[in-house]
Amino acid sequence: MSNYRLNPSATDTSQNIISERAAQLNALLICISGGGFESFNGLNDVLKNNVLWACQVLAADIQWHINHEDEHLQGVENGK
């Protein structure tokens, strides 16, 4: 999964990555729901697809980190 970091001061723990991605996803979804839906709906199809793709990638990244958090914790316990 992705290894990009928008906040260079954050540590590389699954919990921090999950929190960062959830905040990013939340911000995107706020922009395309409620009053923001009119602006989103006015975008061309390529931009709308890219915004929804970004939401999907963030959601998949969150799910991946949730599913692999146990493996990360086991590695920490074993000194990896």
Would you write up a description of this structure?
By secondary structure, the protein is mostly helical. The chain has a domain at 44-80. The protein has helices at 14-31, 36-41, 45-77. Helix 1 (14-31) packs antiparallel against helix 3. It is elongated, with a radius of gyration of 16 Å. The relative contact order is 0.16. The model has no long low-confidence stretch (mean pLDDT 83).
List the helices and strands and how they pair.
Layout: H1 14-31, H2 36-41, H3 45-77
Helix pairs in contact: 1-3
Overall strand count: 0
Radius of gyration: 16 Å
- Percentage of residues assigned to helices: over 70%
Silhouette:
elongated
Class from helix and strand fractions: mainly alpha
Mean pLDDT across all amino acids: 83
Which strand-content bin applies to the residues? Answer: under 5%
Instruction: Determine the number of helices (DSSP H or I, runs of at least 4 residues).
Output: 3
Query: What is the makeup of the main sheet?
Result: none
Distance between the termini: 19 Å
Unreliable residue stretches: none
Task: Encode the helix/strand succession as letters.
Answer: HHH
Give a brief description.
By secondary structure, the protein is mostly helical. It has three helices and no strands.
Structure characteristics:
80 residues; mainly alpha; 71% helix
